[in-house]
Amino acid sequence: MPQLSPLITNLALILIVAGFTSLLFKWLKQPVVLAYIVAGIIISFFISKETTEYENIETWADIGVIFLLFGLGLEFSFKKLMKVGVTAFISVAFIVFSMIGVGYLTGIAFGWSHITSLFLGAMLSMSSTMIIIKVFDDLHLNNKRFTGIVLGILIIEDLVAVLLMVLLSTIAVSKNVEGKEMFVSLFKLVTFLFFWFLLGTYLIPTFLRRMKPFLNDETLLIIVLSFCLGLVYLATRAGFSSALGAFIMGSILSETLDSERIEKMIVPIKNFFGAIFFISVGMLVHVATLGQYIVPILIISLVVIVGQMTLATIGILLSGQNLKTAVFSGFSLAQIGEFSYIIGALGLSLGVIETSLYQIIVSASIITIFTTPYVMKLAEPTNRFLEKKLPDKWQRILNRDASGMQIINEENVWKKFLSGLITTVLIYFLFSIIIVLFFFRYAVPIVSYYLPGIHGDIVCAIVILLTISPFLRAIIIKEDRSSEFMLLWNSNRTNRGPLIFTLVFRVLMCAGLITYVLFQFFHENFVISFTGALIILVLFLASRRIRIQTLRMERRFKENLNEKEKHEESKAPLTKGFANHLLERDLHLTNFAVKPYYSIVGKTLKELKFRQFFGVNIVTIVRGDQRIHIPNGDVRIYPEDQLIVLGTDKQMEAFQQEVEERRKKYTHLQEKEISEVQMKQISVEPHSPLVGKTIRTSRIQDDFDCLVVGIERNNSSIMNPSLDLKFEEGDLLWIVGESSNIKRMRGSELFQKNELND
Q: pLDDT digits over 512-522, tens only?
């Protein structure tokens, strides 16, 4: 008799338990992540972690981490990182470093080792993106001003978590926190991120664009997964975690036009393997031994809640936001996030933290997730208390206009020039160094094996120099042709000395890199190598072909990097410039979709009186490809319109409440049974009131919303009969209509004596 593999039976057990716990937690209106952890705790009674079955679950959990990070990368995008603003960067820097310090001191107070305490601090510094988004939705806070700041903070925290995983693994392996070792590891990490992001952005969008005719959903899914797992393999080969490779590939694909399509296809895979990962987290919790850890669980839960509330509020205040925004934002971050589990799993795999600490973190996480909605509800009374108790002088300082901090003197030409120059030099020079190191590490040994001696050295040198030539040319030429350079050169003669110095410095940098390459192959003295480097550099600058190649590479990279943004802007309800003109203190823009069942459909803005009732202003109506900016009172609202509404948090709340009421009413109507259209046969009996009447005069369509589509008479069929055709005895009518209407028609005087045949 054939038997199922334990792999399948264990998977069945996992899914059955997870399915029931998910339904239970949905009914309780709790996050599904908690359901998976509870499912893992239940399953731990049936599957011991010492068995081979648990090893299979660990493998699935590892795949789950890969797809979780890949999905986060798809939602992340490095371009989005640059848009979240100074507020998020300053806030995250303060929150993460402060919470790591608090967690480290807490671990030391418990008598744990330095490395264990450091892992504890890292785990406590991460808030939960999944939980916060769900609570925002449940509490109807998505249109508040502070939610944008919180989501920006979460975006950067995701990246910081990935970086922390790499740094912590380096510290765990080296068993120390040596400055040089940390610097080298950080440099390798930044180099890996930088290289693959640039290379991926240059190649992958172009590949997907050219292969689009062949990419149905199945093929695209296979291609995307191959990209993801390929970079996962390269990341592990380079000494980094698999999660880093998955995250980088996700962030690269997030900038493509197919990102939303890819994200939808990945969601089921991410949910499935992610669920197994969180179940594996729960399996590490031993209920029998939790009693002895109850004190550290409660203390760490309290540290997270109070620490995040306080430190996050302070960090957001330091970034320039007012007191109310800081309090509401800080109180939203008071929980332990999903990345904490991943960091904890990393510590377990490296053998630097105990299973007991993992149990404590998971238990504390459950407590902080349950308390999150209640902590967020405390923000309003806390803000009122602080406004009442704080001195007026303090309140004036704390409630200063944050927008004023973002005013930058863009007319400072020197700053603009130096900013662009430093960015260009760093990007191109670092990329050139990576290419040179790559060739010396992998390509040169292969060429030397098949073509030894001077001939192989010449070939390698030529290939390396030609490969980096477009980047070296861009370092020297690009910024010197900018408008800022020309303005500084022509406006003041004293500027020419510093400008020439920047040019000479760049020439020396590029010549130094070429000298290094030549010296490695030909071992000539420094003077000869440097002279040769200058000659080669002049040839690069004079070459028309290299100039064209440089321009093509830059153009393609910019097109790939910006194609999604341009596509979204072409369909966006508001242009950036228009939105910036409308932004004022405490005002923000929100997009509302008009559903066909809303009572506002068909009415003019003058009739609706949004401004009088809610205080909000309709600044734009998006109707298909048409944009109606600042609509007048005679403009009507139609189904599927997009209303761009400007108002304060309170005004938006009143407006949204009205929208939510409409949604609830429609949801209630949807719960009613919907009658389907059916086709029935009805015979015209002798003495029926229908005999002698026409289809028109019978009013079957008018009174019962039914349609006579055919008549069978004397062994012949009349399809689509005329409305003036008279009914006769023995006719067999084909009636089409909703089942409820046909039933109502049967009960009428016309058909009381007739038999209905299916």
A: 888 888 878 87
E strands present in 127-234: none
Sheet of 707-713, strand order: 716-719, 707-713, 732-738, 677-683, 756-757
* pLDDT per residue as tens digits for the range 524-540: 666 777 788 888 888 88
Beta strands across the sheet bearing 626-629: 588-593, 642-647, 617-623, 626-629
Residues 6 or more apart in contact with residue 647 via CB below 8 angstroms? 587, 588, 590, 614, 615, 616, 617, 655
Angle between helices 145-174 and 114-124 (to 10 degrees): 160
Cα separation, 310 vs 754, in Å, equals 78
Residue 612 in contact with residue 656, Cβ under 8 Å? no
Owner of token pair 């960067």: 89
What pLDDT digit, counting tens, does each position of 237-288 carry? Answer: 877 777 778 888 888 888 787 888 888 888 888 888 888 888 887 787 777 7
- 3-state secondary structure at position 356: helix
**Residue whose C-alpha is closest to residue 332's, from 285, 382, 395:** 382
Backbone CA torsion sign across 12, 15, 18, 23:
negative
Q: Which residue has the tokens 């069929």?
A: 717
277, amino acid identity: F
One DSSP character per residue, 661-718 reads HHHHHHHHHHTSPPPPEEEEEEE--TT-TTTT-BHHHHTHHHHH--EEEEEEETTEEE
Cα separation, 482 vs 193, whole angstroms = 28
Short-list 34, 110, 116, 104, CA closest to 295 = 110
State the Cα–Cα distance between residues 610 and 223, nearest whole angstrom: 49
Instruction: Classify residue 758 by burial, with Cβ atoms within 10 Å: 0-12, 13-18, 19+.
Output: exposed
Do residues 643 and 590 make contact, with C-beta atoms less than 8 angstroms apart?
no
- Reduced DSSP (H G I as helix, E B as strand, rest coil) percent helix, strand, coil of the chain, to 5: 70, 5, 20
Q: Are strands 626-629 and 617-623 parallel, antiparallel or unpaired?
A: antiparallel
Closest of 712, 708, 710, 683 to residue 697, by C-alpha: 708
- The amino acid present at 479, given as its one-letter code, is E
Q: What is the pTM of this model?
A: 0.61
Count CB atoms within 10 A of the CB of residue 466: 12
> 409: helix, coil or strand?
coil
- 386/712 Cα distance (integer angstroms): 83
For residues 365 and 348, give the distance between their C-alpha atoms in angstroms, rounded to a whole number: 17
From the DSSP assignment, how many helices (H) and strands (E) are in the chain? Answer: 32, 9
> Would the CA dihedral through 298, 302, 303, 308 be positive or negative?
positive
Burial of 691 (0-12, 13-18, 19+ CB in 10 A): middle
Helix 413-438 to helix 179-210 angle (10° resolution) is 90
By the 10 Å C-beta count (0-12 exposed, 13-18 middle, 19+ buried), 67 is classed as: buried
